[in-house]
Amino acid sequence: MIKKSTIPVLDNCSINNDSSSLLFVDHLADYIAMHHNMVFPHKHNFYHFVLFTKGSGNHLIDFEKHEIEAYQIYFMAPGQVHTWNFNGDEEGFVVNFDPEYFQSFLLRTDYLNRFSFLSGQNDQIVFTIPESNRKDAVKIFEAFYQTSKNPTVSDLIRVSLLQLLLWIESWHGTKTEKTSNPYNYTIFHNYQRLVEKNFKEIRLPKAYAEQLFITPNHLNAICKSYIGSAAGEIIRERVLLEAKRLLVNKNLNINEIAIELNFNDNSYFTKFFKKATGLTPDEFRKNNS
């Protein structure tokens, strides 16, 4: 495993200067003013989401650029790489909470997995609130912000956050239409989780299919029904994303990154990366310096 320092990882207590707090809620303008210098690639070890009620500029999540627009909302899972280029006119709300925030509160420790927008999947994490829901969004976020300022009602704050997430899910839904076939969706979701945990060591869909007790053909069919690509593409995309994250860290040379990602040699890694992006690892690094 790589021992050198990597992309800075921010934790919740460093954001809100409270080592005991697992939740932070603020008006976006105040948050940006407080952290105006945080405009470098960084990761969070907490869930982070923002509602823009106004603003301009852009931000990058895992190297995908998103232009800000009014009533855009974005969600980030722990470990994603983020930076921003705001123009200073942003208003809205920001919410940060640790993965452990609901640990002693919910019987189902995997409850947050039901929310597609907390999955870290790029096609699920940035969207615009429909016009018919915008007034409600501001009221609900502001009510949650006010509730969060009273630490004596900690359980009520947790319930309020869950209500907020459930409200978002009620109108956003999911592009994967998980309710149409709960069995297939569960397999698809479990496959994504297995890939996230094992992508450095396990590169063959067949090995994952065995763990899911289905055939490789069945796994491919399920993946194609949800994302239009075969199961192997999910593995390749996850390896590629990790390569990009590591390349941002200039303390690591290309050979170290290839070893970290279990490529046999530097040249094989370079061929893989260029085939996927059209750039060599060095060219990608220069373009993202």
From TrEMBL:
Organism: Sphingobacterium anhuiense
Pfam families named among the record's database cross-references: AraC_binding (PF02311), HTH_18 (PF12833)
Keywords: DNA-binding, Transcription, Transcription regulation
Domain HTH araC/xylS-type: 189-287
Protein name: AraC family transcriptional regulator
Top-level taxon of origin: Bacteria
Lineage of source species: Bacteria, Pseudomonadati, Bacteroidota, Sphingobacteriia, Sphingobacteriales
Signal peptide (UniProt feature, chain positions): none
PANTHER family with a match to the protein in the record: ARAC-FAMILY TRANSCRIPTIONAL REGULATOR, TRANSCRIPTIONAL REGULATORY PROTEIN
